[in-house]
Design goal:
chromosome partition, three-stranded mixed β-sheet, MIP18
Length: about 170
């Protein structure tokens, strides 16, 4: 990851960003239930930074709104969030780390009533099944968060983008 010699995808294709979501008529109305939708989930994860490039997962087309699914039953019920992400190359060694970053962001942000499932888009990675199994294993995710080096890298991915000094 230091210098371009260690990059797997030295020149990734960069995509345009989605427009900012306009406010709805009930966004500030406390009398209307505020359920999560796919766009809201996408907005939570779109700015996560790639571990190898100074670009967001949205800019690399790793995450898309259309790959976010939500079943939100509201305050009284359980729900589910499923996010499929697409690594930039089929042998991306950072896929587990990217998935972990997405999962951690959602677990830190969403209410506990929503179950989080993060998966690789089917057919887009050579180790898809193994990585999906890792990301679904709560004990492995908890162990990863306790690893200081891994936590440092995921925190960098989740940190807000800092503009370069002029």
């Amino acid at each position: 990851m230091s210098g371009q010699g260690g990059l797997e995808n030295i020149n990734p294709q960069v995509y345009s960003r989605a427009a900012i979501r306009p406010e709805g008529p009930n966004d500030w109305n406390d009398d209307v239930p505020d359920l999560f939708d796919a766009r809201e989930i996408f907005d939570l994860i779109r700015h996560i930074r790639d571990p190898e490039h100074p670009l967001s997962l949205e800019e690399l087309n790793v995450v898309e709104e259309s790959a976010c699914e939500v079943e939100d039953m509201g305050e009284g019920g359980q729900g589910k969030v499923v996010v499929h992400f697409t690594p930039t190359i089929p042998h991306c060694s950072m896929a587990s780390l990217i998935g972990l970053s997405i999962r951690l962001k959602l677990l830190q942000t969403l209410p506990a009533r929503l179950k989080v499932d993060v998966r690789i888009t089917p057919g887009t990675h050579a180790s898809e099944l193994a990585i999906n199994k890792q990301l679904a294993d709560k004990e492995r995710v908890a162990a990863a968060v306790e690893n200081p080096q891994l936590l440092e890298v995921t925190n960098k991915c989740l940190a807000p983008h800092q503009a370069s000094p002029a």
